């Protein structure tokens, strides 16, 4: 018969091995490997080092849930993309509201670093100067500029050089309205200065000491595109993009009628195989070809695949800056 | 007399007589020659008096003292063109050159930048004596000429009027020039390189400046100063169209405005006074007096002992001051737009003058952007840093750095004119408004043409309290600027402005290398006349 019972103060005491052992305590060190793993599963190692099977089961369940979550996320991403692929049948108002939520973030993935591309930040505005002839406005660059503005804080200015006397007003406002903060150049990450000048070929200058000027709309477009997203790492795909860009600028924009027809046929067959020119993703190739196709003439005789692709490009909403110049 | 002496004497006598004979002979020859000359002259004179049927068609008439009012219309040389062919016209011009060739005399008649070939030929209208007279007219004399305009088959390359020449019927010398000129105009217009190559003379600058009246007659000088007049006119017109009011400020002032180091002192009755270094104070007072936007054109006196290619002790200052609403960039925009309108006006209306100047002083045409390029001081430091120049954050730009920066900007943006904004506060005068966000910087700016500074401007401190603090910080005697500070005590709008030097702007626009070329009668530490 016991006098009175008191609840044990320190719980989970292990049964001591009387009379040889006074009291036992759980082994606080446990097994080395197990104690180094994640904090989520705190291991209660038994004295002999084995893991409690209940905890193990809990961990397994947690892993399973996390995996399902990741799968779901990937599925949702995929769905989001299908909404903006050529197979979607949306009107422009819906897609424009989508595009206002920065389509660049969905269409241009990949990490770019301004410092590696443009050189060390010396505490001053990094200004890219583009000299263009007003007789040949560079539409691809205007489109690239508007996408750049969504990604970075860009200070855009348009100037007219003294070698040119009259420039139509729409060319003066082609980079959009003057930014409210344009009085403080230091506050911007990037500057784009467009100068309408009497030049034979479009020219870009950035760092006079370290870089030679870049000539030609195709090359400048490639440079600016790299500020948005890196070229595909697969060499074959990168070359494909490059060849489409060159075809756009040299044969579509400047070529004879025969060359243009040949390019349109090539575009048609390529677009029959994949939604975009370089596979599943919208790329610089699509941008350049869209601008050059529309610049080179009326869309009366364009093949069906090309027409469908043109519509889906428009659905993306990037090309509004180029619209006023395509009439 | 001894025998020897006698012999010696006779020898002497003989010698004397020999000498005497020789002397007599020589005298005889001389007399004969003289007589010959005289008879020839007499014969000539007789002949000239006999044959001179054109006596009344040339000569030196009495000095023009307004004896009579002739209704004669004088044609300008620049208007001589094939349209006037076969017309008989009168014109007044200078004799640039005259060259006799047998029975003809070729003259080049010059009027400001234009010249035309003229011809006096022996015929039924002109006599031999007239041709001789024309050939002897001294260079630079002013002549009245009646001539018929004739078309020429081959263009006369050496004249500005290349399609016509004048056949002179009457020629009178209105004002004769001395024969020896202190400098020759062809030499004054010759480009320096050409002079060295061909061994021909050029005139050095001091000689030109000492004889400015003649040097200003050259085509180059005429072109430069016509262009300068154009700059002034475009400045006035552009600002007037923007609603600015022209003011005149006093040049005799009681206190030195910008610190006191470089002022001229004049005696003023019983005390002394100073010649104004800039119209700064008075421009600002006008703004406080509600004139809103003002400009003034007037002389500026700087007693700087700088003997450089771009400093004068007296020059013409074109100054602007305006009140703004919220941001001093409104002032910068106004000033740069004025400058761009001036450049455009010169580009579109003064091409002849620019090309004339380029013949003697070749240079690159002036390029600019519209709207004007505006860079910040930090960007300039970054560009210089990339080019290898190490400069402190708050350091002022030295002249070589300014020139290097100008070259870098030209390479990147292809413009000869730009604005550098946000200068460090430490290097600006006490009345410059500090930057609101960064105490190191100020709301001030400089403008550059071809890498050289032409304008220094800023937002001014319009609050008397802050102005007093800034003055004390710069250790300026408050007593001396009391009236200046007082003008801001009764309500002053925020304002800013800047000033340019007319001569420097012209010099840099044309790509010249010395400011004395664009100042009519320059003043520098070593020159007080003409």
Automatic annotation (TrEMBL), chain A:
Highest taxon of the lineage: Eukaryota
Keyword Mitochondrion listed: no
Q: Where is the AIMP2 thioredoxin-like domain?
A: 124-215
Domain called Glutathione S-transferase C-terminal: residue spans: 256-314
Q: Which InterPro entries match?
A: AIMP2 (IPR042360), AIMP2_LysRS-bd (IPR031889), AIMP2_thioredoxin (IPR041503), Glutathione-S-Trfase_C_sf (IPR036282), GST_C (IPR004046)
Location in or out of the cell: Cytoplasm, Cytosol; Nucleus
Q: Which UniProt keywords apply?
A: Apoptosis, Cytoplasm, Developmental protein, Differentiation, Nucleus, Phosphoprotein, Protein biosynthesis, Ubl conjugation
Known partners and oligomeric status: Part of the multisynthetase complex (MSC), a multisubunit complex that groups tRNA ligases for Arg (RARS1), Asp (DARS1), Gln (QARS1), Ile (IARS1), Leu (LARS1), Lys (KARS1), Met (MARS1) the bifunctional ligase for Glu and Pro (EPRS1) and the auxiliary subunits AIMP1/p43, AIMP2/p38 and EEF1E1/p18. Interacts (via N-terminus) with KARS1. Interacts with EPRS1. Forms a linear complex that contains MARS1, EEF1E1, EPRS1 and AIMP2 that is at the core of the multisubunit complex. Binds FUBP1 (via C-terminus).
**UniProt name for this protein:** Aminoacyl tRNA synthase complex-interacting multifunctional protein 2
The record lists the organism as Pagothenia borchgrevinki
Automatic annotation (TrEMBL), chain B:
Q: Which GO terms describe its cellular component?
A: catalytic complex; cytoplasm; intracellular protein-containing complex
Q: Which GO terms describe its molecular function?
A: aspartate-tRNA ligase activity; ATP binding
As its record notes, the protein acts as a catalyst of:
tRNA(Asp) + L-aspartate + ATP = L-aspartyl-tRNA(Asp) + AMP + diphosphate
Ranges annotated as biased composition (Basic and acidic residues):
24-39
Alphabetically ordered keywords of this record = Acetylation, Aminoacyl-tRNA synthetase, ATP-binding, Cytoplasm, Ligase, Nucleotide-binding, Phosphoprotein, Protein biosynthesis
Lipid biosynthesis as a keyword of this entry, yes or no, is: no
Look up the domain of life of the source.
Eukaryota
Question: Where is this protein localized, as stated in its record?
Answer: Cytoplasm
* E.C. numbers: 6.1.1.12
List this protein's GO terms for biological process: translation
Does the UniProt entry include the keyword Aminoacyl-tRNA synthetase? Answer: yes
Q: Show the Gene3D superfamilies listed in the entry.
A: Bira Bifunctional Protein, Domain 2 (3.30.930.10), Nucleic acid-binding proteins (2.40.50.140)
Q: Which proteins does it associate with, and in what oligomeric form?
A: Homodimer. Part of a multisubunit complex that groups tRNA ligases for Arg (RARS1), Asp (DARS1), Gln (QARS1), Ile (IARS1), Leu (LARS1), Lys (KARS1), Met (MARS1) the bifunctional ligase for Glu and Pro (EPRS1) and the auxiliary subunits AIMP1/p43, AIMP2/p38 and EEF1E1/p18.
Q: What is this protein called?
A: Aspartate--tRNA ligase, cytoplasmic
Source organism per UniProt: Pagothenia borchgrevinki
């Amino acid at each position: 018969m016991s006098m009175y019972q008191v609840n044990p103060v320190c719980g989970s005491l292990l049964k001591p091995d009387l009379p040889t052992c006074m009291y036992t305590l759980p082994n606080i060190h446990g097994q080395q490997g197990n104690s180094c793993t994640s904090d989520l599963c705190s291991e209660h190692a038994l004295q002999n080092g084995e893991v409690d099977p209940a905890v193990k089961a809990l961990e397994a369940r947690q892993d399973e849930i996390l995996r399902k979550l990741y799968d779901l996320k990937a599925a949702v991403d995929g769905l989001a993309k299908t909404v903006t692929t050529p197979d979607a049948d949306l009107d422009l108002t819906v897609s424009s509201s989508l595009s206002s939520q920065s389509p660049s973030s969905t269409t241009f993935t990949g990490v770019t670093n301004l410092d590696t591309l443009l050189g060390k930040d010396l505490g001053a505005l990094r200004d890219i100067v583009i000299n263009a002839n007003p007789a040949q406005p560079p539409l691809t660059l205007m489109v690239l500029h508007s996408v750049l503005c969504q990604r970075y804080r860009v200070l855009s200015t348009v100037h007219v050089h003294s070698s040119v006397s009259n420039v139509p007003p729409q060319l003066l406002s082609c980079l959009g309205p003057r930014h409210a903060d344009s009085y403080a150049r230091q506050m911007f990450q990037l500057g784009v200065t467009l100068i309408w000048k009497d030049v034979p070929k479009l020219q870009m200058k950035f760092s006079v000491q370290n870089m030679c000027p870049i000539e030609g709309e195709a090359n400048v477009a490639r440079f600016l595109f790299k500020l948005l997203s890196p070229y595909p790492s697969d060499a074959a795909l990168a070359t494909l993009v490059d060849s489409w860009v060159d075809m756009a600028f040299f044969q579509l924009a400047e070529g004879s009628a025969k060359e243009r027809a040949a390019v349109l046929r090539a575009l048609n067959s390529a677009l029959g195989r994949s939604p975009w020119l370089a596979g599943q993703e919208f790329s610089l190739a699509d941008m350049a070809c869209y601008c050059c196709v529309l610049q080179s003439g009326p869309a009366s005789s364009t093949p069906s695949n090309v027409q469908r692709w043109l519509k889906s490009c428009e659905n993306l909403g990037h090309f509004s800056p180029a619209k006023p110049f395509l009439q | 007399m001894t025998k020897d002496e006698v012999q010696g004497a006779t020898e002497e006598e003989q010698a004397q007589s020999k000498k005497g004979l020789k002397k007599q002979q020589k005298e005889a020859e001389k007399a004969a020659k003289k007589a010959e000359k005289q008879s020839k002259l007499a014969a000539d004179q007789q002949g000239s008096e006999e044959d001179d049927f054109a006596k009344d068609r040339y000569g030196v008439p009495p000095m023009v003292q307004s004896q009579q009012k002739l209704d004669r219309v004088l044609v300008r040389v620049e208007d001589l063109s094939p349209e006037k062919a076969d017309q008989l016209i009168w014109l007044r011009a200078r004799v640039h050159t005259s060259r006799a060739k047998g029975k003809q005399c070729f003259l080049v008649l010059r009027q400001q930048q234009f010249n035309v070939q003229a011809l006096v030929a022996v015929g039924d209208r002109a006599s031999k004596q007239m041709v001789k007279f024309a050939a002897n007219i001294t260079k630079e004399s002013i002549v009245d000429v009646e001539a018929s305009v004739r078309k020429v088959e081959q263009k006369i390359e050496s004249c500005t009027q290349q399609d016509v020449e004048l056949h002179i019927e009457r020629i009178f010398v209105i004002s004769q020039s001395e024969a020896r000129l202190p400098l020759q105009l062809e030499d004054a217009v010759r480009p320096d390189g050409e002079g060295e190559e061909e061994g021909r003379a050029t005139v050095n600058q001091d000689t030109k400046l000492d004889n400015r009246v003649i040097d200003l007659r050259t085509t180059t000088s005429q072109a430069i100063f016509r262009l300068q007049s154009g700059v002034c006119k475009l400045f006035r017109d552009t600002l007037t169209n923007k609603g600015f009011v022209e003011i005149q400020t006093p040049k005799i002032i009681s206190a030195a405005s910008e610190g006191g180091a470089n002022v001229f002192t004049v005696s003023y009755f019983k005390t002394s006074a100073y010649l104004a270094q800039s119209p700064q104070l008075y421009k600002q007072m006008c703004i406080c007096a509600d004139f809103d936007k003002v400009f003034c054109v007037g002389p500026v006196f700087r007693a700087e002992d700088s003997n450089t290619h771009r400093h004068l002790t007296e020059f013409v200052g074109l100054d602007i001051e305006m009140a703004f609403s919220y941001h001093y960039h409104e002032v910068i925009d106004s000033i740069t737009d004025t400058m761009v309108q001036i450049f455009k006006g010169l580009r579109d209306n003064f091409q002849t003058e620019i090309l004339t100047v380029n013949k003697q002083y070749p240079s690159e045409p002036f390029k600019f952007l519209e709207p004007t390029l505006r860079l910040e001081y930090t960007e300039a430091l970054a560009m210089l840093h990339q080019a290898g120049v190490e400069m402190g954050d708050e350091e002022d730009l030295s002249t070589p750095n300014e020139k290097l920066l100008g070259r870098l900007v030209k390479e990147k943006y292809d413009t000869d004119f730009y604005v550098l904004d946000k200068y460090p506060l430490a290097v600006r005068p006490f009345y410059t408004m500090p930057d609101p966000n960064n105490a190191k910087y100020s709301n001030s700016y400089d403008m550059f043409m071809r890498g050289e500074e032409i304008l220094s401007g800023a937002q001014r401190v319009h609050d008397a309290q802050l102005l007093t603090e800034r003055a004390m910080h710069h250790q300026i005697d408050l007593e001396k600027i009391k009236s200046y500070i007082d003008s801001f005590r009764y309500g002053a709008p925020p304002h800013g402005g800047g000033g340019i030097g007319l001569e420097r702007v012209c010099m840099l626009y044309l790509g010249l290398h010395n400011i004395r070329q664009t100042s009519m009668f320059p003043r520098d530490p070593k020159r007080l006349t003409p």
